[in-house]
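thought: fold this chain, then report.
action: predict
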Amino acid sequence: MAESSPAELDKKIRALLRRALAQSPLNRANLCDELAKTVGHKVPPAMLDAWCADTKTRWHLPAYLIPKICELTRDDGIQRELLSFNMLVHLRVGEFIFEHTSLLQHFEREVQRAVFTKFYGKKEGLRWFWAARQMFGPARRQKHSSQEALKRS
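observation:
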């Protein structure tokens, strides 16, 4: 979260809430019904409108509703805005790893192939590379670890 005044943060949260409600798969009435089930009291659509309006500065979105609103609208913009800088960095690193897992796995395979080829020569190295992939690939690793866990118990 960037350093900002409380008024700027309030405006940004209101804008993010408006965007989330506009893109939500639920209409306002259904969203209010789902929120009422969660919090145990009625949340009228007029209250949602007050939380979104820039002119209603006395009305603020309660913090305890933020996770549920983000879940129901399928938009986590408000939660992201409230994260500290360190938590935002952690989140982005995790997202990068998740998005680029196949690229990282491809890079790992290429490094293994290069090592086997350099160590054993081209033809023999490729044969060893594929044998190692079959023996110690991801599926085999999981199978071995679960078998070891069963033996230990």
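thought: worth noting. Residues 118 and 125 are 7 Å apart (CA to CA).
final: tokens above.
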